[in-house]
């Protein structure tokens, strides 16, 4: 049940980012659900691999390079998911930042964030 709630919250976050960030488009609720699923899958596989490989660069840039990796993952998801489109890298970059913040806020409000213990 917790996984489904997180998926729905992520889809809601994608939909909200599409309303807030120019150049970030979602055609409807189904596209938001699929986009959230694909973004999560890409981040868990390819994104994790890239974050491990580029960790030294991330340390040098004080974590900012991870935002670039997240933007690339969102652009990749937009190339795969019909009904989800990102116009430019800038829109993907700002969308990644806003999506991270909104996702964190939603999961905190719902009480589904991972605990430290």
Core attributes:
117 residues; mainly alpha; two-stranded antiparallel ribbon; 5 helices; 76% helix
The tally of helices reads 5
The largest sheet is: 2 strands, antiparallel
Q: Determine the N-to-C terminus distance.
A: 21 Å
Poorly predicted spans = none
Strand content: 5-15%
Report the strand count. 2
Rounded to an integer, what's the Rg over CA atoms? 14 Å
Helix content: over 70%
Q: What is the string of SSEs from the N terminus onward?
A: HEHHHEH
Shape: globular
* Major sheet: arrangement of strands: 1-2
Average pLDDT: 89
Based on secondary structure, the structural category is mainly alpha
General description of the model:
With 117 residues, this protein is mainly alpha-helical. The protein has one domain (2-110). Helices cover 76% and strands 5% of the residues. The chain has a two-stranded antiparallel ribbon. The longest helix has 25 residues, at 29-53. The relative contact order is 0.19.
């Amino acid at each position: 049940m917790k996984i489904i709630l997180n998926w729905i919250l992520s889809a809601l976050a994608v939909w909200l980012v599409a309303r807030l960030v120019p150049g970030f488009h979602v055609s409807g609720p189904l596209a938001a659900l699929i986009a959230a699923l694909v973004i999560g899958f890409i981040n868990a596989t390819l994104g994790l691999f890239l974050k491990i490989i580029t960790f030294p660069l991330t340390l040098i840039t004080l974590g900012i390079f991870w935002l670039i990796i997240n933007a690339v993952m969102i652009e990749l998801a937009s190339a795969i998911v019909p009904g989800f489109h990102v116009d430019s890298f800038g829109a993907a970059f700002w969308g990644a930042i806003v999506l991270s913040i909104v996702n964190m806020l939603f999961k905190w409000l719902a009480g589904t964030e991972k605990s430290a213990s």
